[in-house]
Amino acid sequence: MKIFILVVGLLELLVGSVLLINPRLMAAYKKANNALLTTARMYGAAASSIGIFAVYIFSNYENSVLHEPFLIVFAVFHFLVSLAIIISFFLKQTRDLKIAILHALFCVITVYFLLNQ
To answer: How distant is the alpha carbon of residue 36 from its chain centre?
Structure first.
């Protein structure tokens, strides 16, 4: 669980920072309009926050009181991001479900750790 938290946390921190600072560095946002760039930056802020929380949990892993609240927040974040992308897919606002599948996988793994701690 500790390695999962660190790896996913660093990934969220990296992607979140890129989206917050300059979303156009990502291929999907090269030609994005201002509203989409703002939305990407908002996701970047949320992902960066989750990433910072994960790194904090990793560095204070001995404090098991923090595990359950973190795993709940982590699972909810990944579930809702996945759900948002799936809704957009069914509304024909996106054609790509890869990120939704990735976040759903992170959610499932997080719930597994939550139930088996």
So the answer is: 18
Query: What residue segments make up the domains of the chain, in order of their start?
Result: 2-115
Provide the residue type at 34 as one letter.
N
pLDDT at 28 over 90: no
Burial of 73 from C-beta contacts in 10 A (0-12 / 13-18 / 19+): middle
Return the residue matching tokens 């750790």.
113
Whole-Å CA distances, 102 to 12, 21, 99: 12, 23, 5
pTM for this model (two decimals): 0.89
Residue pointed to by tokens 């990433």: 51
* Among candidate residues 53, 19, 18, the one with its CA nearest the CA of residue 37: 19
Q: In whole angstroms, what is the distance from residue 12 CA to residue 88 CA?
A: 21
